[in-house]
Amino acid sequence: MAWLYVLAVLMLIAFVFLLAVKPNKGRETRLAVMYAHRGYHDDGHPENSLAAFRLAKQCGLGVELDVQLTRDKKLVVFHDKNLSRMTGIDKDLCNTDFAELETYRLAGGDERIPLYSEVLETLGDVPVLCEIKTYTGNANCEACPEILDLAAGYRGDIVYEAFSPYILKWLRQNRPDVIRGQLSQDFFRHGGLSGAPAFALGNLLTDFMARPDFIAYNFKDRSLGLAAARLLGAETAAWTIRSPEEIEKAAELGYTSFICEGFSLEKELYAVGHECENVNAYPLQEGAQ
Fold this sequence. Notes:
Blueprint: H1 2-21, E1 34-37, H2 50-58, E2 62-69, E3 75-77, H3 84-87, H4 98-101, H5 116-123, E4 128-132, H6 144-150, E5 158-162, H7 165-174, E6 180-184, H8 187-190, H9 195-202, H10 207-210, E7 214-218, H11 224-231, E8 235-241, H12 244-252, E9 257-260, H13 265-275
Parallel strand pairs: 1-2, 1-9, 2-4, 4-5, 5-6, 6-7, 7-8, 8-9
Antiparallel strand pairs: 2-3
Helix pairs in contact: 2-5
């Protein structure tokens, strides 16, 4: 009879696991097929710059971008916690006022760090995948209200994602109408977390807090939680794709949206938009072949 108890315990664990990773279902995610990671950036168009966002729009691409607060509470589009990689200034963005940021230039060129409002005005109606950064604390949701307020008049689709489950929980409780996605990866492989937090977040076990509409996962990683979420109907976006071959591989793995950089994205948009089963493909502009 002991085996019955073992079986019952295993079944209970499996049930709790599936309950934890269960996604929000029944809503159209409105995910584009392809997003230009931090804009369509190259040597002449720095990442998360207005130039990179204009180029993405011109090529008929969706845009993935990163939003965080300055010291004087201005919402800007910038990926890193520290300014050094992109501006040469060794200072955290959260300790810098926007007026000072305006004096710095991205990657030694003419572009500067833009306000989120400027980016939305530039994009107009382009599909946006907005990552909400939490460098000042994973439970700090102070940027969320203004991020959502600025999106009120935007003509395109904006969906939101974050590594922090607290951000997604805030969205679920305060703005259940918006589409929210859980960002994740194998944290044991890539670092940043260890022990129980790494296992829980890498396997999406915090999804019970937010019930995300989609999962954005490092496509090179695997996890039991990701497989279970897919089994339960979760839509998945792959990051970060850096070649046409990686798009094909990600599609074979079941991803239907692709966050890409480093190659001719507009040509690949034509391919994946016609070959992948995703009714939410961003319409091709003339010349994007």
